[in-house]
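Hey, resending since the last one bounced:
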Amino acid sequence: MSEANCTEQILDVGVGSRHGSGSVCRLCPPAGPNLPSLTEQALKRWPWLRALGSGLVALFCSHAVIADSMPRQLQAVSSPLAPVVASLGNATAEARLDFARLLVEALVEAYENELDPSIFQRRRNAPDRQKLARWHQAVQPLLSELRLAQANLYVASSVSVHLDRHQQVLLLIDGAPLWAAWPRIDAQIRAERDLAREFCQLHPCEQRPLDSLVASVWSPEGVRGQWVLSQRHPPTWETSAGLRCEFRDMSERADHEALCRAVVRDLEMLADALEMAMRGGERIQWTRLALESDPGLHLHQVIVNEQGDYLRLAVPALDRARVDWREAGRWLRARVHGEPAAMATVVRATNRGR
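The structure tokens again:
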């Protein structure tokens, strides 16, 4: 059967999507000495087979696109484990096994901590408790999978360690994949840094992980800025980074300044996360940026495109200050692309506080 005769379904999923301008699904029989003639005879005798095949391919492709268009959590920060994993290419089987064992043990501990009853007891209002209960239900199967992988490591005949294109660590345990997905992004860097140090104490590392890889470098205290007072504008705190925050008055000057510093810190962290996502080939739509908070988990999801893909970060100041996302998106785009940008008013006096 020739390529032209293959049953084909073309699905237009939009220019610039993760598929490009469109996806093509084909249903073609495998090549064989007698298959083309037999296939043509069957189609001539039963023409309804072609319609059935087209329908099946359309159904298959539609499910594939629906599954692929589901929102995804994007990798937000560079992993301190990346240089360690890169050094494992020529490592011994014992070293790879030790790394996998340490990683899975750390993941199990992290997810077990999520089920700590004391966390549930600290949630006083009903909505937070409901969110936390749903989170507990989601954690249970993940924890079971990790415990199974932990047991399989003791009897595995083959263990390999890889980095995917999003710089996420992937274990293959006798061919079964296990991605290192942490429950909390704010604890991930600390856990991976400690894990890297522990592994490098057991085995020589070609490139030791550096503290500069840790995302804790973002500090509100390091933000430079000054107050700007004008008769035509509300009191404004402007920063050297090109961001400013407006306030109704100067009655809580120290608190206002601290809030703006925290907003700048969160935006700087978000810019670095967006830049990393773009380097990994992810699609960022600057006018689609939006923030969703989860008070029960103290984390935030920054929506980055129309598919609903998101970065999960701890950016409480962006939620508390009710940031103007049109201005923030303009500044973030320029910051990520290394372009100059006009001063962006990301907090306005009319939107301030909750």
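The first strand starts at residue 7 and ends at 11.

Sorry for the duplicate.
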